[in-house]
Q: What sequence folds into this?
């Protein structure tokens, strides 16, 4: 009887999240098509902090140049990143019609966020009315760029953030990472936003008015923050800057080297998620726990009731397929990998609660989930 009750709770919460997601999309008049009007020329500057090491870096940068060929680009490179320099100089030469500026940055000092260290050089350099901060593993469709610009066009105090989806990868570690994001992106970001508004922003891609960026002193207030996206969201909440979670997608493609790399990335993401969770008020914590943590735990418990588990699996697959079709106009679901990723969520959560030390790039940080991180620089 207990398994049947848990199954009903799971399906009920799944349907509630789906309803919230659909209502959020409806309230923001979302068109599932990715086709849309192009931005007026030189209206948007796309700023990217670039680091070499991923074999598809060049392809992603080139895709953005083709998607947003009439906009401006500023690429920030480390002085000693010769591979990134080779790739970027090659693209500038290949696409001479595009407005691209390369800026070389001095080595990032300790206790400083390396992404913000580069982006701070943007201050006073953006000549377009709007600015998009975009990760170098991310591509932004023109319709999504138009949607984000439209969201902030009439608001001087707003940051609009896009909805991340991972492109499918053939290797299992990369596919697991991608399906984790695709499983949760719409149902988590949009469903939660319907209830409590946008809690944080997706650091992979967001847009603001250039004048707001200048008011933020080129993001210098979060220069010493470990989690730049969460830090920026917290700073926005504290300074009467609104956050808008757009259902417009952006696409991410990250190469995960192996399973060790996968577990390191998931551990870091879950630690950051716990930092977000513990920083919220009780109401928001309850919404997050109810809509996200409980279903994941029930899903793994019902492995001990194979019949009910298969029933939940079918229901979950149909819902995921429907939601992705509604938001994207297509499904990016890989049922087997998606299921495996869902089962691993509880493992990642327990790991993050137990192990507070995380590895990021070449550094190791000790994180206090209810306070600041200790290590090379402070967290939010």
A:
């Amino acid at each position: 009887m207990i398994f049947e009750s848990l199954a009903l709770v799971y399906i009920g919460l799944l349907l509630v999240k789906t309803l919230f997601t659909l209502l959020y999309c409806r309230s923001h008049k979302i068109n599932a098509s990715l086709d849309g009007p192009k931005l007026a020329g030189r209206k948007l500057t796309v700023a990217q902090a670039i680091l070499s090491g991923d074999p598809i870096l060049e392809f992603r940068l080139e895709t953005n140049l083709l998607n947003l060929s009439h906009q401006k680009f500023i690429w920030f490179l480390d002085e000693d990143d010769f591979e990134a320099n080779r790739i970027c100089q090659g693209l500038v030469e290949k696409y001479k019609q595009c407005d691209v500026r390369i800026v070389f940055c001095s080595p990032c000092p300790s206790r400083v966020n390396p992404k913000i260290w580069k982006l701070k050089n943007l201050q006073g350099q953006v000549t377009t009315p709007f600015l998009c901060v975009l990760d170098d593993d991310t591509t932004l469709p023109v319709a999504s760029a138009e949607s984000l610009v439209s969201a902030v066009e009439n608001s001087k105090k707003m940051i609009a953030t896009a909805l991340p989806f991972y492109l499918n990868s053939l290797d299992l570690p990369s596919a697991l990472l991608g399906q984790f994001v695709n499983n949760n992106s719409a149902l988590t970001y949009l469903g939660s936003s319907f209830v409590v508004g946008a809690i944080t922003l997706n650091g992979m891609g967001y847009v603001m008015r250039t004048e707001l960026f200048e008011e933020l002193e080129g993001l210098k207030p979060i220069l010493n923050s470990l989690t730049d996206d969460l830090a920026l969201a917290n700073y926005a909440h504290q300074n009467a800057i609104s956050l808008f979670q757009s259902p417009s997608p952006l696409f991410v493609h990250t190469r995960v080297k192996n399973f060790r790399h996968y577990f390191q990335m998931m551990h870091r993401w879950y630690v950051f998620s716990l930092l977000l969770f513990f920083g919220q008020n009780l109401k928001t914590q309850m919404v997050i726990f109810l809509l996200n943590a409980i279903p994941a735990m029930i899903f793994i418990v019902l492995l001990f009731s194979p019949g009910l588990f298969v029933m939940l699996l079918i229901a979950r697959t149909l819902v995921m397929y429907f939601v992705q079709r509604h938001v994207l106009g297509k499904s990016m679901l890989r049922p087997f990998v998606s299921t495996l990723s869902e089962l691993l969520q509880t493992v990642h959560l327990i790991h993050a609660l137990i192990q507070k030390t995380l590895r990021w790039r070449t550094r190791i940080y000790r994180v206090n989930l209810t306070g600041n991180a200790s290590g090379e620089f402070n967290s939010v």
Q: What stands out?
A: Strands lie at 44-50, 72-78, 99-105, 130-134, 138-139, 158-166, 205-209, 242-252, 357-360, 363-366. The chain is about 50% helix and 15% strand.
